[in-house]
Design a protein that fits this description.
4 copies of one chain form a homotetramer. Chain A is 40% helix and 20% strand. The first copy, chain A, has 14 helices and 13 strands. In chain A, strands 2-8-7-6-5-3-4 form a 7-stranded mixed sheet, sandwiched between helices. A 4-stranded antiparallel sheet of chain A has the order 9-10-13-12. Chains in contact: A-B, A-C, A-D, B-C, B-D, C-D. At the B-C interface, α10 of B face α10 of C.
Chain lengths: 341, 341, 341, 341
Amino acid sequence: MVSFESDYTTGAHPAIMKRLMETNLEPLPGYGTDAYCESAKEKIRAACACPEAEVWFLTGGTQTNATVISTMLSGYEGVVAADTGHVNTHEAGAIEYTGHKVLTVPGHDGKLDAGELAVFLADFYQDGNYEHMVFPGMVYLSHPTEYGTLYTKAELEAIAGVCGTYGIPLYLDGARLGYGLMSYETDVTLPDIAKICDVFYIGGTKVGALCGEAVAFTKNNMPRHFLPLVKQRGALLAKGRLIGIQFDELFTDGLYMEIGRHAIEMAERLKTLFHEKDEEFYLESPTNQQFIVLENARMEEQKKQVAFGFWEKKDESHTVVRFATSWSTTEEEIEYLREIL
Amino acid sequence: MVSFESDYTTGAHPAIMKRLMETNLEPLPGYGTDAYCESAKEKIRAACACPEAEVWFLTGGTQTNATVISTMLSGYEGVVAADTGHVNTHEAGAIEYTGHKVLTVPGHDGKLDAGELAVFLADFYQDGNYEHMVFPGMVYLSHPTEYGTLYTKAELEAIAGVCGTYGIPLYLDGARLGYGLMSYETDVTLPDIAKICDVFYIGGTKVGALCGEAVAFTKNNMPRHFLPLVKQRGALLAKGRLIGIQFDELFTDGLYMEIGRHAIEMAERLKTLFHEKDEEFYLESPTNQQFIVLENARMEEQKKQVAFGFWEKKDESHTVVRFATSWSTTEEEIEYLREIL
Amino acid sequence: MVSFESDYTTGAHPAIMKRLMETNLEPLPGYGTDAYCESAKEKIRAACACPEAEVWFLTGGTQTNATVISTMLSGYEGVVAADTGHVNTHEAGAIEYTGHKVLTVPGHDGKLDAGELAVFLADFYQDGNYEHMVFPGMVYLSHPTEYGTLYTKAELEAIAGVCGTYGIPLYLDGARLGYGLMSYETDVTLPDIAKICDVFYIGGTKVGALCGEAVAFTKNNMPRHFLPLVKQRGALLAKGRLIGIQFDELFTDGLYMEIGRHAIEMAERLKTLFHEKDEEFYLESPTNQQFIVLENARMEEQKKQVAFGFWEKKDESHTVVRFATSWSTTEEEIEYLREIL
Amino acid sequence: MVSFESDYTTGAHPAIMKRLMETNLEPLPGYGTDAYCESAKEKIRAACACPEAEVWFLTGGTQTNATVISTMLSGYEGVVAADTGHVNTHEAGAIEYTGHKVLTVPGHDGKLDAGELAVFLADFYQDGNYEHMVFPGMVYLSHPTEYGTLYTKAELEAIAGVCGTYGIPLYLDGARLGYGLMSYETDVTLPDIAKICDVFYIGGTKVGALCGEAVAFTKNNMPRHFLPLVKQRGALLAKGRLIGIQFDELFTDGLYMEIGRHAIEMAERLKTLFHEKDEEFYLESPTNQQFIVLENARMEEQKKQVAFGFWEKKDESHTVVRFATSWSTTEEEIEYLREIL
């Protein structure tokens, strides 16, 4: 039995575990004020080529999205997202729980389009009743998207341009950012993201950490008194070291990129394998998630030997399934899969 | 330099770290559905002698308080706490953030009094305008309290009796429960708590874990669809294993109690030492936190050699400070402190 | 200058004003506990042929929607509405402000379709990840819709049937209910609505009152302690008499229906006039709102002599405008309009 | 049977009713954009001698408090009030419903003390853990207080001085402001209040209107996009004229002050009467509410002939009751009361 179910099925990268062990006995102050958190922030600023970035560590993706969005929006504002965006679908209403609406534009393989976004915003302000509506106060995008797809640098710049016209921040959800940065098909670097976006997060949970996401505010725009705002949302760890040490390690000697590179290499092998086996691709993504279509009976058969994710029904007799790679995916696992298919 | 600053300054108990290492490569399903979470829940139910308990793992104390309180209260209800209760003071308004008021009764060394609670509740329902007020919908207490003090079994039963009269649940915040259970001066056991309270949590973060708290609903009273409620609050970990494995270890071979016992033993040595040195006790607590009064100049001098917590100003020239012990406190550290005093 | 801008441009029906004058000096208890409120509730129950209905008076439409929806939903639930529904568009995010998501299905001239609703709900529960999503916890529809259209009795029953299958309440927003009930083209009566829906409101503000909406819970399902929930939302009037007296009058001698009938008669004359003048209908609604398309230059010209509502741009050179009738619309005003067109 | 139960038991002052009648047929735009609202705002600015004041009309007191407080506070802030303040006691948790805590200082006959406030604020910022606590972000006071008492101008200035030191706004709840302004014992004028406070409201509901409160932001500090914030809270009336016309009348020819003056005169007669009858005063207030102590059996007897408000139990055999006067209180009613006592 092997698992391609998701990129959060195994624990942390061994280097992270080692570092947690080594530092375990050191007494450190709580709530993210320790030296490892500070060091990790410094390394992230360097990796982003953004010395002015304000970095904050949170625990998980939904928590990060809700915290960032709700603390950056004004009360009369909502966040614009692709209709397939994680904040609109699979966060159990965490954004609305904070009192803000998710406004949607159509998603195209998970991506929102700068032109459509521009029309959406222009239409809003042309509506004579806009003061009775939810103001678009931020644009949210995920990169990679929920479908594993990526924006090009030009696409991100175009979206940022639209945001700039309306004076609203662009927020990039990088839950799987490492895989996006290391994709064979991307022209977007971490410094590009820091330059283009107003705020973004570097995902840890799904890129080799036990937990943890690093939020970067790049334009001197971190909400004032962010600590009590975070604590109020139940998102402040007493042992902040747990995330600080992990990110310190992830940004030492390029580990974060190395994890991304490895998973991408494994994903490319998966793609090659699926092509060899003439599998039907639902979406041939450039990142660590691959979506193929399986006939239902065959899917049931394979489930006995390999774990993968259920994505959606395609039709009565076919299902879209997801195969994800991570830091722990091995060539042996792919060979094992070759046998099964 | 030694640290008695708090019980969350070092990492996790070595046995926990070992277990995390051993299980690191195992692929496990996400969101708390793995076998370690299930096993940990089973062990907790056994330790509580409460086979019907519904157990859930959350990440930190404030998050747990806000999640439990806001999901168990009706919209028109608030939670009653001692005015010194953590939910009323040091959670940055996390309870109010969920839309609920904290109603207060006087704290006595951190404890609320059953008699005063009964009067408070009786007065509420005798007020002709009570429909214009916040209904008392739950009673919150911490055990140990924020001052390290403990309720007796009779006191807990009396409070539960008052709650029962009004049909409202009793919630016990056990952020430092291990130290309460192992105190030399307690008559309260974990099964007692499970029997007396409607919901409580067994603190992990401050009792030897990296993070994590185990909530137990003991009366078939876990809110329906608790998972989306937790996720909505940003409190659902993708790698739920992180907490499941830790609690599975904490409740294997009595580790949780062992950690408590060790810290209590160290705290008793601290007390003995303070008595020997004729230090002024602010409060001689029966648990792992000891509060003494230092003259300010002397406090500044000692701070250079030992870390302790600032508690509050006593008067212009004196300060109350806190010394806390934990799993990692050693006899050597106490001997070192002896030299300093 | 005459105004067809909306149905809330003039004050209250003269009979209501007269009644307010007559009762002005009577001392009455506050907060909706007076005899007029009670009498009005009794008359509404009778008009609905629903003696068990629990009736409550609120001040305006958005307030009513937010109060009803947020107090009837569980925390993990959202409300399903047509994408054009008022709660999804023109309430400034009032539903999300209460922490709940508006889930959308396509609107067809403002109406949602029972079949599409059934598919939406079935799909939700077939999604393996539904515990990570917002549960559909209520269905919201407006009748008349925002486009002046109406459901047939069969359509309402079909929607209620779908709701019944999933055990979720059907809520009807009757901001303009009087016009729907008196439409020449409806087969739906007030008792039908009380029987079919779980909760609905009879709009006053837009049907002849100064302010006020009457919510009816028809299935012994009014949320417990509704008074503090209402007060908490800032929706409880000290002088509750203001709304009670108005509804008491509206439901005396059929005034509410009479107001609806008059406005419908005037709207039908408008339709006839528009047909005579060969105006282009955007939508030939069966209620008191009529939507026609005007060439922009002509629209600007007419605006100098008659007030109407801007609805939306149709194309670069044409605009959809709305003409609304009310209790105060006169034949003279329509004749005046005839001159202008 | 006469009623001194409250100042909201009768309808509106006849001049207001007359004005509502006279304007009833005029078509006016909705949502507070009509000429009467504008005229009323202009008159209020003049009466306040504060031409830069931004004035907004809301419907009731709790709604106004919740809207003003929640839109002026930052997320990490709460509002400081006397423990007896209306926002802390009788608003069903409306402030907490918006996510903000009410922080309390002791009330002295309903008033907070500038010195105690200064200590409270100083202590907050001296606490090493203040980032884990709710920040004091505004000071709330009621004038008259819930006990009918009044601040002197010097007291208000002292409180404003403390607020200024910490850069937080001072908010005055003037639900019964007219009675405070016309008290025989006050030195505080409306222009004083506009000068001293950052925001306050002029109560209408309890001072002769059917409903309505006028909020004045005096320091160019009205929250941006206040309309959608108000609408989102369900507090925007479609027929905004209802409140605009009433306040336009209240501030024509000094009606608001005249109503206050009349009620004060009647209250002074009440006081004289109670003294003549040797009644025990609980509090001899300088405004329209008088509190006396009645032996319970006597209270029950009198309740049959005169309505008054229950305030609180004094002891087992005595009760504090409230007599309130208003625009509609007559000398005949007081003579009738004389007979009864």
